[in-house]
From TrEMBL:
UniProt domain NB-ARC: residue ranges: 19-170
Naturally occurring in which organism (per UniProt): Amycolatopsis decaplanina DSM 44594
Name of the protein in question: NB-ARC domain-containing protein
Domain DUF7779: 239-324
Phylogenetic placement of the source organism: Bacteria, Bacillati, Actinomycetota, Actinomycetes, Pseudonocardiales
Pfam families, per database record: DUF7779, NB-ARC, TPR_10, TPR_12
Amino acid sequence: MFGNVPPRNPIFTGRGELLKQLAKRLNSGTTAVLRSALHGLGGIGKTQIATEYIYRHLQDYDLVWWINAAHTTQIRASLTELAGILGVTGASEVNTAVPAVIEALRTGRPFRRWLLVFDAAESAETVLPFFPRNGPGEILVTSRSSDWAGIARPLELAVFKREESVELLGRRGPEIDPADADELAEKLGDLPLAVEQAAAWRAVTGMPVQEYLRLFDESVEEILDTVAAAWNVSFEELKTRNPAAHQILHICAFFSPEPISRDLLTGVNRVSISPELDAALRDPIKLARAIRDINRYGLAKIDHGNNTLQLHRLVQLVLRNRVMARQVHARMQHGAHQLLAALDPNDPESSRHWSRYRELLPHAYAANVLDCDNDWPRQLYINLMRYLFEYGDHEEAARLGLEARKRFTDVLGPTHPQTLEVSSRLGLYLWAIGRYAEAAELNQRTLALRLQISGEENEETFALQRNITIDLRAQGDFAAATKLSEEILHKAKRMFGEDDPETLHAAYQHAISLRLGGAYREALELDQDTLRRRIEVLGRDHVRTFSVNSARNVDLREAGEYGQARIQQERLTENFIARFGADQLDSAGNSLLLAVARRKDGDHPGALSLSTDVLKRFRLAYGDDHGTTMASALAHSIDLRHSGDLAAARKLGEETFERYRRGLGEHHPHTLAANADLAVTLRLQGDAAAARVLDERALEQFRAIIGPDHPYAVIATINLASDLSELGELDRAVELGRDAVERGTQVLGEDHPTVLAASFNLGLDLAALGRTDEAAPFSAPILARYRRILGEAHPGTQAAGRGARANCDIDPILM
């Protein structure tokens, strides 16, 4: 398998000893780095040597994959493409695909004989995380940077040996006298790219060497740069022969040194750069002639198979910094901006356009589209930011958003429509990568500006207020989030109507707030209605219909309908995977909900098996500190506890509690939930005193932050009573037990399993105090309700039958 490798150079010359050293280095199992011995200089032949090595050693590998490594976004995109080709599980989104393919290569699945080439990898710190460490394959890096010296011993590339320069000059064009070739090589400094260009120029023109040297010397006097002079002769000839071709070369100097699709040069009716260039871009015959002339002078590589042209970065540098006058420079850079904007599909949320945005991205970086003074190319930058977020590269989307917001605020002002659009989206992106405080501050500031400009009854204002709701949840202020999401829902109904997708999304968001606030039955009623409407408006198989369906199942679970929640979630997860594939992260999200539903319904082995897989997938996709990963880890720690592995449950529980504390703060309800779950494990390990400390803290904070009647506070009360009972403080345990039964019955209903647990535990403590008459209503009658509600085979029912205390868990609801 062979991917993205450049075409072979049919006149590759010399470098025999270096190729042998490269083969030896790679065969020894070490990473090989091809680095220029001339600091900061391109054109030395790194990419050419790497390409030639591949073609000479194709038989040694099952997989060769070439990665343009100038930007992390390009590396991620290339690895995501590779994951899909290899059929690696988890290849649907960049966040999943990249770690999955790295792991597959590291373990040699499906190929052990692989070669990865990271071309133009200037930042070792940026590129190293993408290496499959200790894998069976080989890694080749090309770089101009000295960063790699401390990581791998580089093979230093110097200029050609003189005989190599002479050989290349003799292989193209008219016959050349060895003495003339030697003199010309001397003038060119034996720089491979410059020698190759001079040979190509002589092949086209047939000019005698001495005449070429005279023109070269004249250029040196004007430009005072050997490399620039080597091309200036060809530039001037091309300008005379075909002015449009000369200007296309100037335009392409602002694109990335990667292959440039010819699509960028066609379909440009809205673009106006110069009369000659406009005419060529609108006429396929003139455009083809211009590209042929560029190719004749060796100024670009033409790949007819992929319909691309490519300029070496050194040619681009010379054109931008040595050849163009300032006025021409500005006009051509703006022309590049226009050509890129003309190819914008203007629909970054649609996956069918992602390949186009992936193609535009490196060229937009190189052309510095962000600094354009025209709205059209700036909108392309915004759309690239949106594409990256939808594609799953949240970190890069946030980076672009931060840069755009600063630039637009400085140049356009904070109230410009594009500044406000970037700010609105950036608030969500920062939230998605866990920078909650920054997101909240930005959203508040942007909302104030939007209200000032557009007022309340405005769709942009409406979207920003939704962001504020999410911020409030991240801050742990569930009551304020519920109040605001209710207001937004009423506004949506007024602005858009009951069945508009925006209104249905507002309803879905309000149900999340209700659920976080402990109003499970109210959330269930709203989600049932939203599900019915989404089926009618969007269809049963729409991703948003699936979302509200899974939310409805969480409502059922939290409302105590464990059996029904599990049945519905089993069905939904199966249907979702059939519709969207097992590799989708949303499939893993549904599997997480199914694992919890299985545990609640008594299938502890089934829950453990599923949560093991889900946690692994989210760790690969998001890392350990992402909210979804932490929720998965907490669920898995509870499953480990139910399986009897208390040591593993405690270790994971402690790690997860600490991650919640760092990410959301000590007083966030999700942090306190992790605290309460860990306390159960500590008590079961025999450390009731340590469990008591955790549960007292959790209960105190729950009551202060979300109120004493919130189900989380009821659960903390039940578990603290168990700690006290274990420690012999039965009177206090009974007091807390009665409080939990009363509040739980009021909030959840008397048949909710949490209330059954509180009631049964209260009966045990009353009996232990000898208060048998008081204990009687909480023993046999509660056991009968266990059998009726959960079933005879449920572990909770069986534990109650043995007279064992019930422990209650909290599974944080995703925000």
